[in-house]
Amino acid sequence: MEKESKKDIMFNRMKEKKKEVKIVRRIVLAIVLIVLIGGGIAGYSGYKYVTSALQPLDKNSEETIPVNVEIGSNLDSIAALLEKNKIIKDARVFKYYAKFNNESDFQAGEYALSKSMTLDELIKSLKTGKVYREPVFSMTIPEGRTLEEIAVRVEEKTSYSAKEFMDLVSNPEFIDQMIAKYPTLLTEEIKGENLRHDLEGYLFPATYAYYEEKPSLESIVDEMLKATSKAITPYTEVLAEKEKSVHWLLTFASLLEEEATANTDRETIASVFNNRMKTDMPLQTDPTVLYALGEHKDRVLYDDLEIDHPYNTYKIQGLPPGPISNPGTVSIEAVLNPSETNYFYFLADKEKKNHFSKTYDEHLAKIEEYLR
């Protein structure tokens, strides 16, 4: 009995060991499976992450982000800079992508990059020293165009009608949104009672590139306002010193834009207008009459000068209530840096060259000389 009991004990122990071995094997197998599954998940997640990092961070973004690549920057620092400015998702992926494609010789400089740029576009930009991106289409707004003329241009270049454009830039809710977004550019002055259009003068003349087939109409107007804000920002201190507003500046500049026939004339025409305003003499500039009439004419008639309108500078003192067109940088700078002259009159001859006079008699003589 004793032997049998010992045998039973040994047999039971062996059975227990077998069970333990089976349990250990199951545990090991479970661990291996967990590791393999976890590795697979991690591998798949890693694959997805790298794939997304190779794509534009936001292909629909229209925002441009200023990036300064300093002299002596290497690939590591440039990649880190791009990630810091949220232009790319991962600096390491960008770095390895550039190395894999044997890309180097990046240029130092100031860049305006976008989250919608591909890695290839970013690399090409950084190698050539300029932003490289192929727009779907572009639209040029020349200097001196009115809001209604810009509306026609938008209709020509996009799927939006001129009426849709004018409806948007006349929409009080949209105007308030833009005032909130650009408080140093747009003030309550643009809501003046006698203003013909709130945003007249505030859409900057430039060539705009678009990277999607149908950008929103709001984004088109917003981009033009942003360009004006950027153009005006360098002059905020000068305006503060002169105790003048942006609205005053753009209104004055719009007159120069319409009257000048050459860039060099703008400072002198500005001096004429300043001299007249100092002596309470009406500006008497024909483009304001045409704006009041709401039509383009090759020649302003005497009857036109009699129109009773807040923009008619033959009838009012000083500047009109607001801009009569959208001026460019040259006209803006001429307002802030006018010539010092004793001129009170000027006229454009048949070749569109301006002639200036100090007295009315001189002016009449030049009319006879150049226009009769």
Automatic annotation (TrEMBL):
Its main location: membrane. It holds the Pfam family YceG. It catalyses: a peptidoglycan chain = a peptidoglycan chain with N-acetyl-1,6-anhydromuramyl-[peptide] at the reducing end + a peptidoglycan chain with N-acetylglucosamine at the non-reducing end. Signal peptide: none annotated. The chain crosses the membrane at residues 23-47. It is found in: Cell membrane. Keywords: Cell membrane, Cell wall biogenesis/degradation, Lyase, Membrane, Transmembrane, Transmembrane helix. Its EC number is 4.2.2.29. The record marks 259 as: Important for catalytic activity. It is a single-pass membrane protein. Functions as a peptidoglycan terminase that cleaves nascent peptidoglycan strands endolytically to terminate their elongation. Belongs to the transglycosylase MltG family. This is Endolytic murein transglycosylase. It comes from Paenisporosarcina macmurdoensis.
